[in-house]
Amino acid sequence: MKRAAIVSPVRTPVGTFGGSLRSVPVEELGALVTKEVLKRSGLDAARIDDVVFAQSYANSETPCVGRWIALQAGLPVEVPGMQLDRRCGGGLQALATAAMMVQTGAADVVLAGGVESMSNIEYYSTDMRWGARAGSVQFHDRLARGRERSQPEERFGHISGMIETAENLANDYHISREQADEYAVRSHRRAAEAWASGRMADETVAISVPQKKGAPLLFGKDEGFREDASMESLGKLRTLIPGGTVTAGNSSQQNDAAAACLVVSEDKLEALGLEPMAWFNGWAAAGCEPSRMGIGPVAAVQKLMTRTGLSIDQMDLVELNEAFACQVLAVLKGWEWNDPDRLNVNGSGISLGHPIGATGVRMMTTLLFELQRRKGRYGLEAMCIGGGQGLAALFERA
């Protein structure tokens, strides 16, 4: 098979829930990174064979968001687009899907990305289609409902949401509140240091956000990390479940962002004048019990390493999505591997944020820029997924 190259990855800064990007719809976020990918690569947009975008909380305001983003960004109408969803792993799945298209010869150039505006996830009702003759109707918060409905209750019983699954892992792997807070402090401090040192500048593109009054706001920096995070400050936060481990300070955020790149067949790089940043060397997905969804990366990485003949010890950098600090610590125990010098060196979901559909591409972008700085060879990306899945992918610096 042909090798799939990653070209010109870029992301927006990540906005907090209801924060600076609240007024920016997903089509604008996606169009911005699409235009930036084309600007950085110099590629003629007509050479794109398909657009694959992930979005986990889709709605009918922007149906088939990949196609919509292609049109919003001004790509030729002949360029098609699609949308996919593997929940938290959707962005990484978009990369894998694009890579398979290229590897099998179905396409030469695919624009792959992910987008999420969690600030704009709507309320909805299932009571109104045929009318309500009397009484009240119920509206669901799609954001909360998507977590509650991640698995069939008749098979697995009631699971209140992702927090419960994280607490299950904390109990299973004997992870304390103090250990979770210690990990979270490290994540926040690493994100703050990465921005202070200027390391994040190359991987991001600023967004001009219109304001009701005055000039537009130029939003150019992740706004969710806590520069002053400490054991004392995080220790003051109450656990979300009484007597538990998870707090707002040691779990991932709800966020708005987009990220994208080109996935290109190796035999077209020279003719198109494109410089690969990395090769997409393989991926694997695995299922696990929905009530322990956070442990999914253990089986996914094991499957991936078996397929590639490599080991996690050979990885120069590892990006593991931080859904919850206790979930990360559980996965590290499951891997029987824990090297802070190679793991999430610039922060992750706890500090940088977790804009669900965009996170997988955001993580890859951060991973590849850091791999390039360190002149490393292999980078591993792994994610847990609501409903009980794990997803992992291997990248090799070009």
From TrEMBL:
Record-linked InterPro entries: Thiolase (IPR002155), Thiolase-like (IPR016039), Thiolase_C (IPR020617), Thiolase_N (IPR020616)
**GO BP terms in the entry:** small molecule metabolic process
Which keywords appear in this protein's UniProt record, sorted alphabetically?
Acyltransferase, Transferase
Q: Where is the Thiolase C-terminal domain?
A: 275-397
Domain of life of the organism in this record?
Bacteria
Q: Give the EC number(s) listed in the UniProt record.
A: 2.3.1.9
Q: Which CDD domains match?
A: thiolase
What sort of enzyme, by top EC class, is this?
Answer: transferase
As one GO molecular function, the record gives: acetyl-CoA C-acetyltransferase activity
| Gene3D superfamilies on file | 3.40.47.10
Record carries keyword Transferase: yes
Domain Thiolase N-terminal: residue ranges = 5-267
Query: Which residues act catalytically here?
Result: 88 (acyl-thioester intermediate), 354 (proton acceptor), 384 (proton acceptor)
User: Member of which family?
Assistant: Belongs to the thiolase-like superfamily. Thiolase family.
Q: What is this protein called?
A: Acetyl-CoA C-acyltransferase
- Native organism: Paraburkholderia rhynchosiae
Lineage of source species: Bacteria, Pseudomonadati, Pseudomonadota, Betaproteobacteria, Burkholderiales
